[in-house]
Amino acid sequence: MIPLYGLAVETAKPRAVIRDETAVRIVDSIDYDFAKFDGGPSLLGTVLRAGILDAWTRQFLAGHPGGTVVELACGLSSRFERVASDRCRWLDLDLPEVIELRRRFFAETKRRRMIAASVLDDSWLDVVSANPGPYMFLADGVLSYLSAEQVHRVLQALASRYPDSLFAFDTCGRKMIGSQDRHDSLGKMTARMIWACDEPRSLERLGLQMRESLTLNHAPRPLRARMPHRDRLVLSAAAALNLRDFARYRVNLFRSRSSTRAFREWGPCHRHDPEPARRPGRSGPPAGPAG
Ligand SMILES: C[S@@+](CC[C@H](N)C(=O)[O-])C[C@H]1O[C@@H](n2cnc3c(N)ncnc32)[C@H](O)[C@@H]1O
Questions:
Q1: Which pLDDT score is estimated for 2?
Q2: What percent of the chain has pLDDT over 70?
Q3: Which CATH architecture does the domain made up of 41-258 adopt?
């Protein structure tokens, strides 16, 4: 609900980083106390994260217009409406009760299917394989809610079954997980994050190669250029002060190891934003995004 609300709030701004009228329509039609998330900096964080993932998805589809995007734990995401190409296939996966709600707002087509399953259940892999590759797997604001063992098992299984595929997901550092009860949005939710990942590059041992690992302060330039001055200041301050271990909240892009083909369009670069100087003992208001 938090990422959805973040996009709806963003859409109402005169200089929105992302405009998502579908998110606005859904928020307007659901009876839920979204206002409790108002005012906190994490809504902006969820928007920037969505923007980074959107940019990578567009780039993937530009190179592979007939490829398949799998959005794991999609919730009520309308990423398909924002970035899908004319020919791509798209699979939205979430738990059965969420897919039931999702069906109120989104229709299935030949190119766009919903899967009611847990990401931990491997029955849906055959549905993925029935669609044309290459594949891009997105997990926006969900892996942190699983245990480390579960995350590793899912990533390893997908990486070994789908070589030459892209994996885009966010990771939270230990400190943010430890202080989530005081977080401006997460503290108001019952779900609790479990998986802390201070060093996303360590996931390479699961059969992945890191392509990019960005802090929210290093969102793509076109995205940052659209940010209102106030939001830019908030972000820069959070990064400079390393609030809530800001530098360890990352949005990552990995590629599974190659079989025969390579994703040449991504080039050889492995961009990994440096961490700012540590400020031991400093604490402050939560800055990372939520959910
Ligand atoms: C914070 S929401 C993010 C939703 C969406 N990715 C977005 O950005 O709007 C987390 C989502 O993860 C889903 N989820 C949690 N555990 C799951 C699991 N084991 N399998 C599939 N989905 C799961 C929840 O149902 C929820 O929709």
A1: 87
A2: 85
A3: 3-Layer(aba) Sandwich (3.40)
